[in-house]
Amino acid sequence: MSFPKKPGGKALDVLQNLPRITLANLRPEPGARKTEKRRGRGQHGGNRSGRGHKGERQRGNRPRLGFEGGQTPFYLSIPKYGYNEGHSRRPQYQPLSLKRLQYLIDLGRVDPTQPIDLTQLVNARGVTIQPLKRDYGVQLVDEGADIFAAKINIEVQRASEGVVAAIERNGGVITTGFYDPISLGILIKPVPFFLRGQPIPKRMLPGEDMVPYYTDAENRGYLADPEKIQQARLALAKKYGYILPDISKDELYHMLSMRKDVRQIFFGLAPGWVVSMPEKKILKTTDEKLLKYYSS
Amino acid sequence: MSHKMAACLSLRSTVLRSALRAAFSPARPATAVGLRCVCNAAPEANKRAVGLTESTEEYKFVERLIPPSRVPAPPRHAGPTPSGWTPPADSPPPLPYMIRRSRMHNIPVYSDLTHGSRRTTLVRKVEGDIWALEKDVKQYLKELTGKELPTQVNEVTMTLKVKGHFDAELKEWLAGKGF
Fold first, then answer.
1. How many helices and strands in chain A, by DSSP H and E?
2. Does A99 lie at the interface with B, CB-CB under 8 angstroms?
3. Given a cut of 90, is residue B46 above it in pLDDT?
4. Does B67 sit within 8 Å of A123, measured CB to CB?
5. Does A108 sit within 8 Å of B97, measured CB to CB?
6. Is residue A14 less than 8 Å (CB to CB) from chain B?
7. Scanning every residue of chain A, which has its alpha carbon at the shortest distance from the alpha carbon of B100?
């Protein structure tokens, strides 16, 4: 800050005092330039030119890569197995460690006084989600569970047990929610969606295979019974050996208990509304049929 | 005759093209949005006719969703945070060199791996006497590892390269100094 910038520094001073640089004065660092190997020249490079004695090696007719002289090659003797079969139909979840989440909160990129959503995480550039690459959202990962110390209301798509314990130990709330690919695309990039001028769609319910996950209180699913979730919180506290703090006595209780409706994509904005960004207004329809559809 | 044929063909092709365009154009939503684009002269009359209400109260929820375009300044912390990030000291340390923080408020020490086995550590954003920094770094790493590590000073870009991966140690050392 207070240091005067001297471009080139001491090297430039030295250069200015030396005689003029010409091609005759320059030499590369010893070991920087290695002379290339020239085949077929001289006593040791000539004769067979590094090709060996007769056979396929000297004549340049070796068989294909992987050929083992007739023995069943390695790549054929191992049987096939469908490890990657259906990989493009498998949902993927971008991992987010608690260490990184704590880092984002510490640097002020994510606000812990507001409910943390996937939109907030993407706006903070904490994760990058690609819905077109079969990403169905973000998953919280155990790493950093021991150093995590923030009271937050977070909604992710998947979370492991250790993560749930770490968040609840600090007095926070975690929920797992499902977003279908279209809703996910809208969730991570809300501004281009609003500029399209289309009404906010309803969030679709999970498919058959995901319903058991999101109706389970152990996973804090958004379709689970709230009473069962409370019981699960107590059970987890007992299992991990910490006292479950009482959130209802917290000053941020209202924020911690904010949850999205099953069909809602954004906090505070209902499906069916059109957002007009240039006019900074929200347009709501009054047609009965549309209202009935959007509130179903 | 050939001219007429050519004109006829071109006309038919343009008609076909416009028909295709109409067939494949995305169907606009049947709500008032399409109508809004059509007439800007009397918007309120149209909106009331179609059945729309406006509101500006919930717009604050939309403002929360807009991504910030600048990196926010980190909140004040007394010492190291739970995640391991240390804020810079309020006043720069009294040394002949200064190492600025990156735009994401981190210490600019990076490790690199080239050619599969060449490990280097790079210290960027150095200001002031870079040779003094090099001397201090060499001494610190000598105490740490017991070896004299080769370093390279680039006075034009004001960077320091050290052989080996020492980014964690150097970050801790620099944070301890108050950079």
1. 13, 7
2. yes
3. no
4. yes
5. no
6. no
7. A1
Say which residue the tokens 């709501």 belong to.
Answer: A284
Q: How far apart are CA A180 and CA A131, in angstroms?
A: 9
Least CB–CB distance from A1: residue in B54, B71, B98: B98
Q: What is the ipTM of this complex?
A: 0.83
Confirm or reject contact between B1 and chain A (CB < 8 A). no
Domain coordinates in residue numbering, chain A? 92-266
Q: How confident is the model at residue B28 (pLDDT cuts 50, 70, 90)?
A: very low
- Residue B169's contacts (CB-CB under 8 Å, 6 or more residues apart) are B141, B144
**H-run or E-run covering A10:** helix A9-17
**Tokens found for residue B174:** 């620099």
Distance CA A151, CA A249 (A): 14
How many of the other CB atoms lie within 10 Å of CB of A6?
Answer: 13
Structure tokens at B162: 């050290």
> In this predicted model, what pLDDT tens digit does every residue of A131-169 receive, in sequence order?
999 999 999 999 999 999 999 999 999 999 999 999 999
Distant-in-sequence, close-in-space partners of A247: CB < 8 Å, separation ≥ 6: A171, A173, A253, A256, A257
Nearest by CB to A103, which of B56, B83, B97? B83
Q: Do A107 and B104 touch (CB under 8 A)?
A: yes
Instruction: Answer whether A58's CB lies under 8 Å from A51's CB.
Output: yes
pLDDT tens digits, A157-167: 999 999 999 99
- Shortest CB distance from A7 goes to which of B55, B65, B156? B156
Q: What would you report as the CA-atom Rg of chain B, rounded to the nearest whole angstrom?
A: 32
**CA-CA distance, A182 to A202, in Å (whole number)?**
10
Say if A259 is an interface residue toward chain B (CB within 8 Å): no
Of A148, A273, A286, the CB nearest to B51: A286
- Of A227, A114, A95, A229, give the one whose Cα is nearest residue A158: A95
At A16-37, the pLDDT tens digits run 899 999 999 999 999 999 999 8
Contacts of B81 in chain A (CB under 8 A): 102-103, 106
CA distances from A212 to A170, A217, A218, A220 (A): 27, 10, 11, 12
User: SS3 helix, strand, coil % of chain A, rounded to 5?
Assistant: 35, 15, 55
Inform me whether the C-beta atom of residue B24 falls under 8 Å from chain A C-beta atoms.
no
Q: Answer whether B135 touches A (CB < 8 Å).
A: no
User: Does B69 contact chain A (CB < 8 Å)?
Assistant: no
Q: What span, in angstroms and rounded, lies between the C-alpha atoms of B120 and B110?
A: 8
